[in-house]
Amino acid sequence: MEAINKAKLMDGRALARRLLAGAVAKVEKIHEIAGVTPTLATVLVGDDRASATYVRMKRKRCEDAGMKSLRVELPLGTTTEELVEEIEKLAADESVHGILVQHPVPKPIDKRAAFEAIPVEKDVDGVTSSTLGRVILNMPAFVSCTPKGIIQLLDEYHVELDGAHAVVIGRSPILGRPMASILINRHATVTLCHSRTRSLPSIVRHADVIIAAVGKPRFVQGGWIKVGAVVIDAGYNEGNIGDVDFDGAIEPCSLITPVPGGVGPMTIATLIDQTADAAALQLGVDL
Fold first, then answer.
1. Is 274 a known active-site residue?
2. I need a labelling partner for 91 at 20 to 30 A (CA). Which of 1, 51, 72, 129 fits?
3. Does the annotation count 125 as an active-site position?
4. Residues 183 and 252 in one domain
């Protein structure tokens, strides 16, 4: 059974390593041609420990890829206006090629106002309304990192999306909604659900592909999953627990992402790769 379980795991770490290696090559080419090192600015507001940890991980991966990491740390009590002003400075700085605002931001900051201050060409985290609109219309864009990481994992494991029924649980504008749009553009039939969806278990039971991004530990139960379904757990809760009851899901599913080691590494690798791409576009370097 252990061997079978391992065969079902979608290894996000291995694919992320390859993606990061590709980003390193891009950074080297950009520096060789333009004499510029791609730079990612990370903006952290407040003293939330989890957010600080995520930002440190992103900065480290950035530096590992040979890019510069510009740290902007603002105290708790920062207003929306002050945060927007800092982002606008980064937007105007030609040495900065990507801007990441770590979310969630502390209340009462208007996070949407903060996101919209990021110019689309530097929106490497895929959080602006302009980016979401481009994703919906299947236009070139720096897609939200988690959905893009997920689609790359699905492609890596040759999951057939054309005509498949995909159920996305979670309607966030930076995960569930762009994920649904990407799947629609890949010719899947998509049902977008959330924690208040009625008869959710019966909907999930019809899914060929399940994307769980609801933010509740072990929310999706093994009994909801039909035999042979592909399960993507995009949740991360305290104690390294995903949004799917892994022990219950491993038996019926054909493939599943572990937590940790599945979607998480792909999210960060996608961020780094998209920052390199953003720098190349801004500098006119053909990769």
1. no
2. 51
3. yes
4. yes
